[in-house]
Amino acid sequence: MELMESIWKMAKNDKKKIVLAEGEEKRNLQACDKILKNGLANIVLVGSEEKVRENAKNLGLDISGAEILDPNTSDFTEGYAKEFYELRKKKGMTLEKAEKMVRDPLYFATMAIKTGYVDGMVSGAIHTTGDLLRPGLQIVKTAPGVKIVSGFFVMMVPDCKYGESGLLLFADCAVNPNPTAEELAAIAITTAETAKKLCNLDPKVAMLSFSTMGSAKGELVEKVQKATAIAKEMRTDLDIDGELQLDAAIEEEVAQLKAPGSPVAGKANVLVFPDLQTGNIGYKLVQRFAKAKAIGPICQGFAKPINDLSRGCSSDDIVNVVAMTAVQAQKGI
């Protein structure tokens, strides 16, 4: 069974309530229609009820099964403002400012997760990653024992022998511009756990670089080497290795020449990039040139599931991210 078929099946078996913070936007409305028709989740749309219904009608969509919450008129707004004030008052938050901020759709939606009214949140079709992360980190915060939020893509490459028959996870492709060695190690461990719980993979984690096992020197290589050592020390039960060039990470013949004896080289299904530039460029290259399906970015590390979208996403992309978010909620990822 293809990964997304499995994810859809799990989402349907235990429906979760997911909030779409950009409820007036066209692709979100199209996704809502598809999600409800397929029974993937219960949906809450944030926005003006009048605009949401008018836009859906103009698009010929049926969103009658969705709940619509307007931050400017909702009965929840006053309570959300008070709770947000209590969460942030030591940081200088005033009640007046909190009342204004929770009327922002992203802050309102994040408070809906915090209070347990919804199980997960998806946004990003018309907002930046920073717009999403800011309220998430202020309100929901990171999961216990997790130091950093990161983002990964599930890459499904057609007719491909690499990874698990073309299935690989790429991280971090969305959140951290230049992670430290310690942060890179944390990203590797978190992504390995996600690969197991969400994708049912036996993770083989490659710490990518332009060097393989000391073939090059310098500050950039040393960071990946240090990150690998930290990750291995923290989790001796996981197969994590590096530093590895991409070809050594995924191609058996190259691995035998460049990294003989590595438990990961030639078999990697989780690729950890040294920084956001390489990660973001890398996933887009594979998506465009190899015609891969890129699902995400999926955030990991939040106490409750909050997920970003690419502003170039399609409605089908939103449907898949919502399904992923629902399964994250089921599994506590």
UniProtKB/TrEMBL annotation:
Pathway: Metabolic intermediate biosynthesis; acetyl-CoA biosynthesis; acetyl-CoA from acetate: step 2/2. Its EC number is 2.3.1.8. Residues 3-326 form the Phosphate acetyl/butaryl transferase domain. It catalyses: acetyl-CoA + phosphate = acetyl phosphate + CoA. It holds the Pfam family PTA_PTB. The keyword Isomerase does not apply. The keyword Transferase applies. Keywords: Acyltransferase, Transferase. One of its GO terms (molecular function) is phosphate acetyltransferase activity. It is an enzyme of class 2 (transferase). PANTHER family: PHOSPHATE ACETYLTRANSFERASE. NCBIfam families: PRK05632.1, PRK09653.1, pta. Belongs to the phosphate acetyltransferase and butyryltransferase family. This is Phosphate acetyltransferase. It comes from Clostridium pasteurianum DSM 525 = ATCC 6013.
